[in-house]
Design a protein that fits this description.
311 residues; binds 2-acetamido-2-deoxy-beta-D-glucopyranose; cell membrane; Immunoglobulin-like; single chain; 2 helices; disulfide bond; alpha+beta
C-alpha cells in the first residue's frame, strides 16, 4: 500500500514537473512587436518559431485580431490537424507553408484602416506552445491633388477666377496651402472643406479665388499636408487666359476705328471752322459796306435838307 501510494505520489509529481516543463516550452515565437501598415498595400506581420530542440513539428497555428473582449476576437487564420481555415484577405506569408516551416508570418493582402489593432499569434508544437502579440497601426497618404478652375478657359484680364485643389486618401484631416509663382502664401484667402469618405479616409477640397486675375500671375501651386504637417502631395495650375494676340488685335482695331472717325471729324471740323471764318469775313465786309451806304445816305439827306433850305 505504502509503496503503491508513494509510486502514485512520484508519478503525479513527475507529471507536474513534465507539465511545468512543457508550459515553459522548447519553442519560442519571435515577432516584431510593432508594425505600421499603409492603406491599400500588402503587409507581412513577421513571426518565426525558434525551436531549442531538433525536429519540431507544428500542430496548430492561430492568428487572431484581438477585440475589446475575448468574444470579439476575430480569427483570421487557423491551422489545426492538417486543416487550414482562412479569412478572406489573410494567409500565411510563405506561399506553400507546411507544418515543418517555422516561418508562420501572416500576410494582409490589402491593408485597410479597420485592420489596425492588436494581433495574437499562437503556435502549438509537439515540443511545446508559444504565443506573441503584435500591434498594428495603419496610415493612409493623400494622393497628388487635382486642380481645376471656374471659369476653365478664355479668362479675361481683371476678372475673378476660382481655383480648386482636391485630394483624397488621407487617414486624418489634412491641410492645403496655396502659393503663387513668386512664392507668396495665399493660404489665408482659401477655404478648406474636409469630408470623411468610406473606410475612414478623408477627402479635402480647397477653394481659392483670385480677385481680378492678371496674366502676370498665372501659375498657382497647392500643397497637401497631413495632420502632422508633412507634405504628401503638390500640384500647379496655370490660369487659362484668353489668347493675348486677340487682345492686341483688338487694340489695333481701336486705332483703326479711331482714325476712321477722326478723319471725318477733322475734315468736318476744318470745314466748319473755314465756313465760320468765311462767314465772319463776309459779315465784317458787309457791315463796312453798310456803314458806307449809311454815310452816303446821310450825305444825301443833308444834301436834300440843304436843297429844301434852299427851296
Ligand atoms: C530528427 O529527425 C531525423 C530524421 O527524421 C532523425 O534522424 C534524428 O535522429 C531526429 N533527431 C532528434 C533529436 O530526434
Ligand atoms: C518569412 O516569410 C516571408 C514571406 O516569404 C518573408 O518575407 C520573411 O522574410 C520570412 N522571415 C524570415 C525571418 O525568414
Ligand atoms: C474639386 O472639388 C470641387 C468641390 O467639390 C469641385 O467643384 C471641383 O470640380 C473639383 N475639382 C477637381 C479637379 O476634381
Ligand atoms: C502659409 O500660410 C498658412 C496660413 O497662414 C500658415 O499656416 C503656413 O505656415 C504658411 N506656410 C508657409 C510655408 O509659409
Ligand atoms: C508653376 O510653378 C511651379 C512651382 O513653382 C513649377 O514647378 C511649374 O513648372 C510651373 N508651371 C508652369 C507651367 O510654369
Amino acid at each position: 500500500m505504502t509503496s503503491a501510494t508513494s509510486f502514485l505520489f512520484v508519478a503525479i509529481h513527475l507529471a507536474c514537473i513534465r507539465d511545468g516543463n512543457s508550459s515553459e516550452s522548447f519553442v519560442k515565437l519571435e515577432c516584431k512587436t510593432e508594425y505600421h501598415g499603409v492603406y491599400g498595400q500588402q503587409l507581412i506581420l513577421g513571426c518565426i518559431v525558434k525551436p531549442m530542440v531538433e525536429n519540431v513539428t507544428i500542430k496548430t497555428v492561430t492568428w487572431k485580431r484581438m477585440g475589446a473582449t475575448a468574444k470579439d476576437d476575430a480569427n483570421l487564420l487557423e491551422y489545426h490537424r492538417e486543416k487550414m481555415d482562412l479569412t478572406p484577405g489573410f494567409t500565411f506569408a510563405e506561399p506553400s507553408w507546411n507544418k515543418n516551416n517555422m516561418n508562420v508570418s501572416l500576410l494582409l493582402k490589402n491593408t485597410k484602416m479597420a485592420n489596425k489593432g492588436v494581433y495574437e499569434c499562437m503556435v502549438n508544437t509537439d515540443r511545446g506552445d508559444t504565443t506573441a502579440t503584435i500591434s498594428l497601426s495603419v496610415t493612409a497618404k493623400y494622393k497628388t491633388p487635382t486642380m481645376s478652375s471656374i471659369p476653365e478657359t478664355n479668362i479675361k484680364e481683371n476678372t475673378d477666377v476660382t481655383i480648386f485643389c482636391n485630394s483624397t486618401g488621407g487617414h486624418q484631416t489634412g491641410l492645403i496651402w496655396w502659393f503663387d509663382q513668386f512664392g507668396s502664401n495665399w493660404t489665408r484667402s482659401a477655404e478648406l472643406v474636409a469630408k470623411e469618405t468610406e473606410d475612414g479616409l478623408f477627402s479635402l477640397s480647397s477653394k481659392f479665388t483670385v480677385l481680378k486675375a492678371t496674366s502676370s500671375y498665372t501659375n498657382y501651386t497647392c500643397k497637401v499636408l497631413n495632420v502632422n504637417g508633412a507634405e504628401e502631395g503638390m500640384a500647379s495650375f496655370v490660369i487659362q487666359f484668353a489668347p493675348r494676340d486677340l487682345g492686341s488685335k483688338a487694340d489695333h482695331l481701336d486705332i483703326v476705328s479711331t482714325t476712321k472717325w477722326l478723319a471725318p471729324v477733322v475734315v468736318i471740323g476744318s470745314l466748319i471752322i473755314g465756313l465760320l471764318a468765311a462767314l465772319l469775313l463776309f459779315k465784317r465786309r458787309s457791315a463796312q459796306r453798310g456803314h458806307q451806304t449809311d454815310t452816303r445816305h446821310d450825305q444825301d439827306v443833308e444834301a436834300e435838307g440843304l436843297n429844301s433850305d434852299r427851296n
